[in-house]
Amino acid sequence: MTNLSIHFQKRRLKSVFLLLLIVLSSLIILYSVGSQPPERPNNSSKESLSSNENIPSFRQQIKVLKDKEMHQLGKHFSKHGRQMGYASKKEYQQGAIEFVEKCKNNPAAKFFEGKWNGGGSLDGSQQIVVSFQNRTAILDKTSGKLIDFYTGTEWRGLIELIAIP
Amino acid sequence: MERFDRVNCNSLKNMRTIIPAQSVDSFQLAWSYNDLIRHLSDSFYEVERKESVWIVSYSYYKFWICLPELILYQIGIYPNDEIFFMGIGFGDTLRDIEEKIGIWQEYYDLYILPTYQGIAFELADNSMDEEWIESEAPISAIYVFLPKKEDNESVL
Question: In this structure, are residues A159 and A115 in contact, taking their beta carbons and an 8 Å threshold?
Answer without folding.
Answer: yes
